[in-house]
Design goal:
Strand content: 5-15%
Number of strands: 3
Radius of gyration: 14 Å
Order of helices and strands: HHEEHEHHH
Largest sheet: 3 strands, antiparallel
Mean pLDDT: 92
Structural class: alpha+beta
Strand order of the largest sheet: 1-2-3
Length: 142
C-alpha cells in the first residue's frame, strides 16, 4: 500500500514540535500551534477512510492506515475534527519511519509531558490521543 506523504517524522520532527510547544506563551499558544500543525497534515484520500481503519476510543472520527517497508513503519491518518488532526501530527512526528522496536521503546508519556498538553485536554480528547498511540503500538507488534 502506498500512503500519502506528510512532513511529520521527517521534515517536522518530535524535537521540533517540543521546542515549538515549550516556547509557546501559555495554553492558548499551544492550542494554536496544534491547530497549525494539523493544517500541515494532508487529507487522507477517501479510499483509505474505511471502517476497518478507524480508531476506537476517539470522540471524533479518526482513520489510521499504515504500511511496513523494510522493517520500517509508515503511517497516515486523518480526522473530521481540527484539533484532533493537530493531535495526530504530534503522534506521527514520533512514530513515522520507525521500526517496531523504536516504536515500543519511545517514552510517549514523557513526550506528552514535554509538550505540556495533556492537562489541558478534555478527558475524552486525552483518551482519544492515547487510543491513537495504542493502535500504532498494536500495528507495530502485529
Amino acid at each position: 500500500m502506498t500512503l500519502p506523504h506528510h512532513p511529520f517524522g521527517t521534515e517536522i520532527t518530535a524535537t521540533d514540535i517540543v521546542a515549538q510547544m515549550q516556547s509557546a506563551k501559555g495554553w492558548e499558544d499551544r492550542y494554536r500551534n496544534v491547530i497549525q500543525l494539523g493544517k500541515k497534515l494532508p487529507a487522507l484520500p477517501d479510499e483509505y477512510k474505511q471502517d476497518n481503519v478507524t480508531v476506537s476510543g476517539c470522540e471524533s472520527q479518526v482513520w489510521l492506515v499504515h504500511a511496513k517497508q523494510n522493517e520500517v513503519f509508515h503511517f497516515a491518518a486523518d480526522s473530521d475534527a481540527r484539533i484532533v488532526r493537530g493531535l495526530i501530527t504530534l503522534v506521527l512526528a514520533v512514530y513515522e519511519g520507525k521500526t517496531a522496536d523504536e516504536i515500543a521503546a519511545f517514552d510517549i508519556d514523557s513526550y506528552f509531558a514535554d509538550l505540556g498538553l495533556i492537562d489541558h485536554l478534555s478527558p475524552s480528547r486525552g483518551n482519544g490521543l492515547k487510543a491513537i498511540v495504542e493502535q500504532i503500538k498494536r500495528l507495530a507488534t502485529a
